[in-house]
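Lab notebook, bench 4. Still working through the backlog of constructs that have no structural model yet. Next entry is a single chain of 215 residues. Request: give me the structure tokens for it.
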Amino acid sequence: MAHETTALHDYPKSPVTLEAVYDPGPSRWLWLVKWLLAIPHYVVLAFLWTAFLVVTVIAFFAILITGGYPRALFGFNVGVMRWSWRVAYYSYGSLGTDRYPPFTLADVPDYPAHLEVARAEQFSRGLVLVKWWLLVLPQLLVTAAFVGGGSFAGGLVGLLTFYAGVALLFTGRYPRGMYDLNVGLHRWAVRVTAYGALLTDVYPPYRLDQGPSEP
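Model written out:
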């Protein structure tokens, strides 16, 4: 019997969607000062992620008791992740755009970085007890090497971003292969974050989907 392989389209679609728009030539030098320009976002995100943790604890008990994730709480936590992705894409998570990220939890259709999580009507009451600390642990160990633990700009992602900045400085172009890998690593990490934060019951695949668009 011939060996059968599983095509990419045979995998179920992930409820977590991370996409971006490729810009081959951001500014050669702006990335050198983005650490300063992004400070207002870093300050706001520090408070937002504190609220994210509180909301996740509340959602834990809501799922455990009712089997549902309150819509308003779900929207807030997805918004925090969305905001973080836009800032990471602009700054040292990717350097993918020179367009300053907006201060909003909502999706901005014309901004070149997008993140969505499809909300399920029902969540498993049993999974909520173990997925955030036990089931997600192997994935956390993998993505820690990608993005440096809880940040969006460490690990392999940080190295790729640094090399991309050097390439921009000397050539004025963002190497496409480096860009595709960078976004793919972020996509994997965001799927794991969404699962560990109880936003989905769909276990993130051990699969690197590279490029600006979902497969």
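Notes after review: The longest helix spans residues 39-66. The first strand starts at residue 16 and ends at 20. Flag for follow-up if needed.
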